[in-house]
Each structure stands twice: as C-alpha cells, then as structure tokens.
Amino acid sequence: MAQYKVQLEEWQGPLDLLLQLIEQQEMDITKISLSQVAEQFIAYMNTKPLQLEETADFLVVAAKLIYIKSKALLPTLNLEEDDGIDLEKQLKMYKEYLEAAKKIQKILNKKKVCFSKEKFPEGITGQVFYVPKSITISKLQNMFVQVINRIKPIVELPKKVIEKSIKLSERIQHIKDLIFKEVSISFCKMLGDSQSKTEKIVSFLAVLELVKQKVINVEQEELFEDIKMNKI
Fold this sequence. Notes:
By secondary structure, this protein is mainly alpha-helical. It is built from eight helices and five strands, in the order ββααααααβααββ. The strands form two sheets. The chain has a three-stranded antiparallel beta sheet.
C-alpha cells in the first residue's frame, strides 16, 4: 500500500496512515467519503496489472474503516468483533487460494492427465518400486500371454428372437391410409400377412379408436364374420 495514496479534500496520503489517524481519533471518520476512497483505488488498480497482495491489503484497511464508520454513525447498533477468523486472515487465505488456482490452471493448460504429490507428508517415508534388472520385455510378454491363456473364452449367449413391437398410433395411421385409398376394406385384408397375436390385437384396438373418432364405421353381417370398415 506504499504506492497508493488517497486524495481527499480533508487529507492526502497513504491509506494505512489514514486508518492510523482515525484509530487515534486525530481525524473524524464521519467526514471521510469511503466511496471516494474505493473509487480512487479502483482507478489506481486499472492502470496496472492486478496485484493480489496489494488488493488484499486494501480490503483489510477498507473493512476496518467501514467498521469504524458504522460504529460512529450508528452508536446504538451493537457491532461486536467476530470471535472466529478475523478478516485479515481470511483475506490471506483467499489470496493463497487464488495463487493455487493459478498453478492448477497452468497444469491444466499443459493437458496433463496424471498428477502426483511433489513430496510425501511429514512422517511418511516414500516407497519407490524399482523394476528388477532380470525382467526383460520378452519375459513380460510371455507372462502376459500366460495370463491371457488362463482366461476362459467368452461363452456365446443364446440368441432369442425379439418380437417387433407395434405402436397403436402407427397402426391407426396405417388403417387411415388404406381407408382413404380404397374407401372400404375388410379387417382381414387390412391385417394382410400379419400372423402375430399382438399385431392383431393392436389392429383391433386401432379400429375401435377410429370408430370412436368417427373416422370410419364398421359392419358385420353375421356373427364371427369378417368386419368391413367404411370411410365416413
């Protein structure tokens, strides 16, 4: 924060010195425009590459200034210090996360698919495996062949003929096409070469649906006779 200086009507100088004067009650915090301080710092940071440490320092000082001004403007408001991790420590942790994220991004940009620890945790001795000198490529190949030969061959599963599923909507459309083409057609002729019981049932349901929709009407002269379908 040594390079950044606040330019206010009441005072000019480093931000951390401003905080020190306010904490020592040598300056009135209520007369300081914190929004102006923030705007000046943003303009200052836009003139140079992002510096995480400098930004974190500014946030620490700015947070303390906001806290002091809030207590000065609202004396009846109970603002107690947080007993947990203070803001300065949180910002330092955040800065460490940002640095770690940059390192991870560099690794990802190299398109590596394998990662390892740079060093073992304290108290743990690393165990490194060294390939015996007696192992050769030919020996490894022979071992691999022996393992493959031990594996049982894949048993071919029995095949089953799967009956083709027929949709009711498809059968309805099929009947419509026949009716519009021939005006009148029998149910048996509509079935054609269909031998499947499922297809016959679906076809009969399709006929009932078309009757319900008043697309066709049906006639059956005698019991168990062929059904004749006519276009309405």
